[in-house]
Design a protein that fits this description.
Elements (H helix, E strand, L loop, with lengths): L5 E5 L4 H17 L2 E8 L20 H14 L10 E7 L2 H11 L4 E3 L15 H9 L4 E3 L16 E5 L6 H15 L2 E8 L5 E2 L2 E2 L2 H21 L6 E5 L2 H11 L4 E4 L10 H12 L4 E3 L1
Parallel strand pairs: 1-2, 1-4, 2-3, 4-5, 6-7, 6-11, 7-10, 11-12
Antiparallel strand pairs: 5-12, 8-9
């Protein structure tokens, strides 16, 4: 069974969405899969709690506006995507909810969407729609602040993939997804586990250094065991520090083209990586797939 057979791209006609769509198109070309561009139209009063928020709603021609939006959607990167079968869907409602519902009903295997820009300050922002989608959907989400250099449509390449694991039971599936993706592209793969500062010190009080050494050794052993189970061969990295920063440092040091992380289960106690997933996405130096 193919790893990816349906890709969904939420579109808002921005330059960042163009870059995200180019990534999605390259992946669709490689996996020979369906590509859907979805634009969710929100009516002007949707930002308010209810239409009654307007004392006197302004004149508004919904039919004409939807026709204009459909025309813009039909023309979005039309020339660049002309060689691919692309489905263009216009819907109405709350963007995050509609995206999640569509991904579920259409059995999408991957959602590709950008975050809020990049730069020394904007990297700390995560758009509310992206955050909600990351929280609500069950399929992997390809995102990140750095989608400005999409691969060539005909020959996408990911030379180095970094898989961040928190060693909870769900991490087996995360590593399996990363391994299958790496296999498709002939990529090198490395795994990283971040040991938070809180296991090393607390309010300025440092714990026994041997404890940190033992934690790192145990984590490395567990990582090696998981790699062996899936027949994954690659470097094992153990980082100490805040989790988003540690994953970013590992990605930079290994020159990763893609970081794969887990989001944990939707029930029960949230795992450490799940609690840090948004931070990892915001701070990553390359695209991130949240599985």
């Amino acid at each position: 069974m193919a790893l990816i057979s349906r890709i969904l791209v939420p579109v808002v006609f921005s330059e960042r969405c163009q870059d995200a769509t180019r990534y999605a198109a390259a992946l669709a070309c490689r996996f020979h899969c369906d590509l859907t561009l979805l634009h969710v139209f929100s009516q002007p009063w949707a930002a308010y709690s209810s239409p009654e928020g307007y004392a006197t709603p302004p004149p508004y021609d919904l039919e004409s506006t939807l026709a204009q939006v459909q025309e813009e959607l039909d023309g979005f990167l039309a020339d660049e995507l002309r060689t691919l079968p692309v489905r263009r869907v216009l819907s109405e409602g709350d963007p995050a909810s509609v995206i999640a519902q569509y991904a579920c009903s259409e059995n999408c295997d991957l959602i590709v969407m950008p975050t809020h820009g990049y730069g020394p300050f904007r990297r700390f922002l995560l758009g509310s729609v992206t955050a909600k989608v990351l929280h609500d959907v069950s399929c992997p989400v390809f995102t990140g602040p750095h989608l400005e250099h999409p691969p060539a449509l005909e020959s996408p390449r990911f030379q180095k993939i970094l898989c961040a694991l928190d060693l909870r039971p769900e991490s087996h599936g995360v590593l399996e997804w990363a391994s299958r993706f790496a296999s498709e592209f002939g990529s090198e793969i490395a795994t990283v586990h971040a040991i938070p500062d809180s296991t090393n010190r607390l309010e300025g009080i440092y714990f026994d250094p041997q404890w940190r050494t033992d934690l790192a050794a145990n984590a490395r052993q567990e990582m090696a065991s998981r790699q062996a189970e899936l027949k994954v061969q690659g470097e094992i990295l153990i980082e100490v520090g805040d989790v988003p920063g540690a994953v970013r440092s590992a990605a930079e040091a290994s020159a990763a083209d893609l970081v794969v992380i887990g989001r944990g289960c939707a029930h029960g106690m949230l795992g450490r990586l799940r609690a840090n997933a948004y931070g990892i996405v915001r701070e990553s130096c390359c695209p991130v797939v949240a599985v």
